[in-house]
User: Fold this.
Amino acid sequence: MRNVTAVLFAFSVGLFIMITEGAAQFNGCWVKVFESGNFRGDRDLIPGGRRYRNMRNLPNSRKGDWGDEIGSLIMGPRATGTFYEDENFSDNRMSALRGQRWNRLGNFDDQIDSMIINCH
Ligand SMILES: [Ca+2]
Ligand SMILES: [Ca+2]
Assistant:
């Protein structure tokens, strides 16, 4: 029983760290982008308060080009986002609210090519 409790505790701590991961960075104003759905694959934490006309060489990113790559995303607790299907804020768009976790992007899967991330 004690072992079960310890495992549950470790799991809870792990979950908590996962959820709060990155929350304090960039004053909570960021978007975390993932290459695949369900928060899998390559990932980067991109600072907000900026307009990104395209997805190449984003700050704090290890991936050279996120264009047509994003499969899921998490909004920071102080960030909202507008995401566009094409570069230069054109074509279809979708909006994400503070703290939202989108485990899949539907029609926008592998389609996002520009974004505006506002801080609040
Ligand atoms: Ca992808
Ligand atoms: Ca696109």
In short: The first helix runs from residue 2 to 20.
